[in-house]
Amino acid sequence: MNNSTDKLNHFNAKVCLQVLPKLDVSGVSRGTIELSRAIVSSGRRAIIASSGGAFTKELSRIGVQHYDLNLYSKSPFSILMNAVYLSEIVNKEGVSIIHARSRAPAWSAYLASKLTKKPLVTTFHGTYGTGLMGLKKKYNSIMLKGNSIIAISNFIYNHIIEEYKFDSEHVHKIPRGVDLSIFSPSKVSAERIIHLSRKWKLSENSGPVIMLPGRLSPWKGQLLLIDALDYLKGTNRLPENLRCLFVGPDGNKKRYRNLLEKKIRELDLDGVVHIIDDCKDIGSAYMLTDLVISASLKPEAFGRVVAEAQAMGRPVVAPNHGAASEIIKKDVTGWLFKPGQAISLAESIEKALSISQVEREKLASIARNNIKEKFTISQMVDSTLDIYENTIKNYKK
Questions:
Q1: 389 DSSP β-pair partners
Q2: Are residues 262 and 311 both part of a single domain?
């Protein structure tokens, strides 16, 4: 973090305001908090405005001030009122720069930026649907109104340029970062691994363990993975005593969870597939896993799971769309399958589980080095602070 410290020491923005819909268990929220923590550690002030959520309590612990606004609402009235409230915060707190991370809050932040004459940075965290006949494009285009725009992957960068025909001069690629103080094999004790293994009833006699981390949601591809396992079972290629774990909260999607459980029973995969509620110790979960699966039906804007798994030295199978191919070294640190195709996923799982221990150790080393070189939090922070600094420097009121 020495380079990050140097960046922060020369960073002129005394107060940074980040704006997002809510502080839930998402990559957007985590990135917001990670950047805020770095800013606070430099002796400067970080402020977050959102409608609250699971991560709100963590803010006071790291010294980040939070303003609770109805930023999750997309109604025009709420957007206008939030613009007024944000303007008041900017003036009251002496904010140097505003950073919006989602569309509805970005409209409010844009208006507040104009009212207070403070520079605005926006981050494209997704592709955002354009709606029927592209009618939502105007709504989405607010993300291009920042004085600087951040794309969280090459995939998102290309999407901005191609979909919106936007001048690439103001778009900057900054991939999300992995916290290597958490996601590193050396940081996970044997006691933690044993504790989680007992909790999940994984014995030494268990077969290979595969895991699909992430909230239970149709687009995350849990049903596709079940179909892939059913294919392997039907062709007598399912590894003996294999355990497949869906690890993540159901997010109040009880109907979808019930659908998953029903399909698991119907295909007689009860002893194979297990739905586990959100895991508090994801580092140990990775260490217990022989293979990490990403099966998203829609392209991931970045895909933290793919990066975190490799930081832990775990092989990964992911769909060949979105940003996965930017993070995975194909057939070296992971395998890419045809999106949405259960047989292709099944064949990739089979390949991944067939490698030798020597090959696994080689893969782990290459995967960890790949993340250290390209996808760390310190790199993300450094690049974002550079954007802040240059945006403030070049801002014309």
A1: none
A2: yes
